[in-house]
Specification:
- This protein is an alpha/beta fold.
- The chain has a domain at 80-258: TIM Barrel (Alpha-Beta Barrel), CATH 3.20.20.140.
- It contains eight helices and seven strands, in the order βαβαββααβαβαβαα.
- The chain has helices at 20-29, 54-68, 113-128, 135-151, 168-178, 193-201, 222-228, 249-258; strands at residues 5-9, 34-40, 71-79, 99-103, 156-157, 181-185, 206-209.
- It has a seven-stranded parallel beta sheet with strand order 1-2-3-4-5-6-7.
- Helix 1 (20-29) runs parallel beside helix 2, helix 4 packs parallel to helix 5 and helix 5 crosses helix 6 (193-201).
- The chain is globular and about 50 Å long.
- The termini are far apart.
- Bound molecules: zinc ion (ZN) (2 copies).
- One zinc ion (ZN) is lined by residues 8, 10, 77, 158, 211.
- One zinc ion is lined by residues 77, 103, 105, 158-159.
């Protein structure tokens, strides 16, 4: 597979190591056409993106794009913060960004205590004990994802099922219906080939992302290649390889809002 774009990379605006320009330069060396800078969402208590720093981030992105010729998208890896499907990307934030990622993380401000308990605590406790969460926990996590996909123009769900469990088929069907991509993350193993095939079977589409926290990992596809090479997975469902670029719903949402 030949990657055309990497839509999930971090910089020191959250806890990545290298600058926007260094990530974009790495993308250029690999021949990528696009890269997204997607630092952690505002509600992350340790290293969330700060709203007041967004103008500086945009300036760095414009500069990196000019110097490398690679299209650099300004994004955020927002946090899913409630079972109602809220994320920490508020309506007022939307016009500051070009791409909208969303995932489940630890150490952040959830909407309510019950959301923190039901989404994060219940899943992570089971994970730490090496157990599968209860059916109730899986149902709550599924509900949170599906509500988030329905209520927000999310482009990509990051590392689905990493340390938390949802009904993959149900979430993938919602992704297919609303045009949200499912990420195959190459920083951590979060889904099996069988699970990817299950999600593909209900029409989901995919992107492969490095989740690079340093420039030397930008464009890394190793885990995805190990999973998918010589497999029966329908590779034409992955929209950022082999010359293809995705059609993102957030860009379309913004075009409609501004029309
Ligand atoms: Zn993440
Ligand atoms: Zn990330």
């Amino acid at each position: 597979m030949i990657l055309t774009a990497d839509y999930h990379t971090h910089t020191p605006y959250s806890h990545g190591k290298n600058t926007v320009l260094e990530n974009a330069t790495a993308a250029k060396k690999l021949g990528l056409r696009q890269i997204a800078i997607t630092d952690h969402g505002f509600n992350h208590l340790l290293f969330g993106l700060k709203r007041k720093r967004l103008p500086d981030l945009r300036a760095e992105i414009i500069e990196a794009e000019k110097l490398t010729g690679v299209k650099v998208l300004m994004g955020m890896e927002s946090n899913l913060i409630s079972i109602d499907g809220d994320t920490d990307m508020k309506r007022d934030d939307l016009d500051k960004f070009d791409i909208y990622l969303c995932g489940i993380h630890e150490v952040l401000k959830y909407k309510r205590f019950s959301d923190m308990y039901n989404i994060m605590f219940a899943n992570y406790t089971a994970y730490k004990l090496g157990r599968k969460p209860s059916a109730k926990v899986i149902a709550n996590t599924t509900k949170a994802y599906v509500n988030a996909i329905c209520n927000n123009p999310i482009d990509i769900l990051t590392h689905i099922n990493y340390k938390c469990c949802c009904d993959l088929k149900e979430v993938a069907a919602a992704c297919a219906e609303y045009g949200t991509y499912i990420e195959i993350n190459t920083k951590k193993r979060h889904v099996s080939l069988e699970e990817l095939n299950l999600m593909a079977s209900v029409g989901a589409r995919f992107v492969i992302d490095s989740d690079a926290h340093s420039a030397d990992r930008v464009g890394d596809t190793k885990i995805a290649e190990e999973l998918l090479n010589d497999s029966d997975f329908p590779m034409d469902r992955i929209d950022n390889i082999d010359g293809r670029l995705p059609n993102f719903r957030f860009a379309e949402y913004k075009r409609n809002v501004n029309a």
